[in-house]
Amino acid sequence: MNSGVWEIVKKEDGTFDLFRTGELLHGSIPEEWLADQLGQYGFCGQEYAEIRQQLDDVGRARIVL
Predict the structure, then answer these.
(1) Based on CB atoms within 10 Å of each CB, which residue in 4, 18, 21, 30 is the most buried?
(2) Is the pLDDT confidence value at 30 over 80?
(3) Cα separation, 19 vs 14, whole angstroms
(4) Residue 40 contacts by C-beta under 8 Å, 6 or more apart in sequence?
């Protein structure tokens, strides 16, 4: 997993943007692909569940590594 500040933002259209240290890595990720996309960067299992909870609660998640 790469260090830095990771941000996942839920957009109004229901897709997600993934940023690392302010740089857009992937844009407009469909919800059904989000787990796989984050899994490529090592965010899976409990980490994914916590990210998903933040996204559901406030529409964004921020992870500092």
Answers:
(1) 18
(2) yes
(3) 16
(4) none
